[in-house]
Design goal:
heterodimer; A: 109 residues; six-stranded mixed beta sheet; B: 113 residues; mainly beta; seven-stranded mixed beta sheet; 11 strands
Chain lengths: 109, 113
């Protein structure tokens, strides 16, 4: 079966750095997405990786290793507004998006 | 620019009733999707549509019906609501199938009593 694993919850301190991991097992691979979802709101797009390596976008970076079935989202200089759930999703060989259950990130002052 | 909208935002209904959730997008995106989101689960695809008059089942289609007579609208109908269909429903759209990003509507919170 297809599976996306990410930690259920993480806690970090304002101003610090946090890394949210995502491992996947899918039938085929056509890209990996990270979305941010604040409580009670819709998911919003953060990043997309299809090739191995690091993609940097401001305070957020996303890394992909296709051979290891692994990605991480790195958030730097954490702000209170970064408190949200972070969803990892993989597009499989049939171009269907398979979603992880999300990681709830709690930021403490 | 409205983007993608859903109505109603909140709905309470009773078991056995028919409920229709509306989704409208102004981007002329080809692809539209319906997901449900429940605690402890990732987003689960109910149905999707590649174009007007083309729809296909997702992971959890049972108990749901969709139609797409116009590109901009993609209504989701629960033919006979059950308590297990209490959930948050998200509509999404994308311009294409390959690496295109999906953009989500604000969601509809449905409670079935």
């Amino acid at each position: 079966g297809q599976n996306i694993d990410q930690p259920t919850e993480m806690t970090a301190t304002e101003g610090a750095i946090v890394q949210i991991n995502c491992t996947y097992q899918t039938s085929g691979f056509n890209g990996l997405f990270w979305y941010q979802q604040h409580a009670g709101e819709a998911p919003t797009f953060l990043s997309y990786n299809v090739l191995d390596g690091l993609e940097e976008k401001g305070r957020f970076s996303s890394f992909l290793s296709r051979s290891k079935g692994y990605s991480y989202l790195l958030l730097k200089e954490l702000q209170m507004k970064d408190s949200a759930s972070y969803l990892c999703a993989v597009r499989d060989g049939n171009y269907q998006l398979i979603w992880g259950a999300g990681t709830k990130l709690i930021i403490k002052p | 620019d409205a983007g993608i909208t859903q109505s109603p935002r909140y709905k309470i209904t009773e078991t056995g009733r028919q409920v229709t959730l509306m989704c409208h997008q102004t981007w002329s995106h080809s692809y539209m999707f319906w997901y449900r989101q429940d605690l402890g689960h990732g987003l689960r695809l109910i149905y999707y549509s590649a174009a007007a008059d083309i729809t296909d089942k997702g992971e959890v289609p049972d108990g749901y019906v969709v139609s797409r007579s116009k590109t901009e609208n993609f209504p989701l109908t629960l033919e006979s609501a059950t308590r297990s269909q209490t959930s948050v429903y998200f509509c999404a759209s994308s311009a294409g199938e390959s690496q295109e990003t999906q953009y989500f509507g604000p969601g509809t919170r449905l409670l079935v009593l």
